[in-house]
Amino acid sequence: MIGFILIIAILMIFLSLWMVYVVPAEGRQQEIEHMNYVRTWFTQYKVTADSLWVNHEPNDPYKSLTGVTFSNSLTLGSQGGATQAGGLFLPVMSPIGSTGAIAVANQPAASGGVERIEISKDGAPAVIEFEMGRLEYDATNHYWIPQSYYYQMGGVFLKQSSGTVARVSPLINFETGGTFIALVELAGAGQVGLSGQGPVRIDTKMTNRTQSYSLIPAPATPYSNITIYLEDANVARGWENALKELRFQSGVSSGACTIYRNPTDVVRIDLQGGPEEIQYRYIYYTISVQSIATGAT
Hints:
By secondary structure, this protein is an alpha+beta fold. The protein has one domain (2-82, 96-291). The chain is built from two helices and 17 strands. The chain has helices at 2-55, 233-250, and strands spanning 69-75, 99-105, 116-121, 128-131, 134-140, 147-152, 155-160, 163-168, 172-175, 178-188, 193-196, 199-209, 213-215, 223-229, 257-261, 266-272, 278-291. Strands 1, 9, 10, 12, 13 and 17 form a six-stranded mixed beta sheet that branches. It is elongated and about 100 Å long.
């Protein structure tokens, strides 16, 4: 009898150590690998989306890509909707799978309205005001830090409690002879969001890509301004850092292209002495999200 009790005690100690050390370590590794997969997915999504408007030839019926749809599948949870083991394999012996949600949305801006970009010249009111939608994935991790990835304005951003960083820069390019901006609109079509653990299908259709337009300041007042209203100070800091890196790579001086936050959730770009002429075009996508397996709602 005493021997049986000792065996049970040893077994309970083993199970306790397993649950305290092994299960969290396995769960953390699964969630880290899944977030790396999500990061790669968004990078590939950006490349595919860019290829549509870059290769689009509106005046050539054989090369026009208006109305073309591309589809990608994304697994929302770290275990992909797999069922937990039962019977002798107690569920407590294995990690709990994470869940996730993906949606197309316009985020509220801290300064009011929604996230948007405004472009003006000569100190006048905004000539262009454009809402910046997102395709965003939010992870509910149990063993790893909560993270979100989203595609916005042609860039890929990682958002977590410590801040926001651009994994891929948005489609803004500074040059000494001008500034180029691709204004990417994301609009929902049909179902715009799903959550769960299993795979979902994201269908993206390019509905239009305009020609390039010019915004040229008057010779007497040769300057222009770009103002970006964002969700919070952390998101704005991520945008500010990404834009300053783009400026550094282009060789444009900080005097000709001043980038700063004022207030902390708004990024402002003052252009003069060369890059103040702005070339821009509109790119329109519609996105729908479809469930392709159980575990997504």
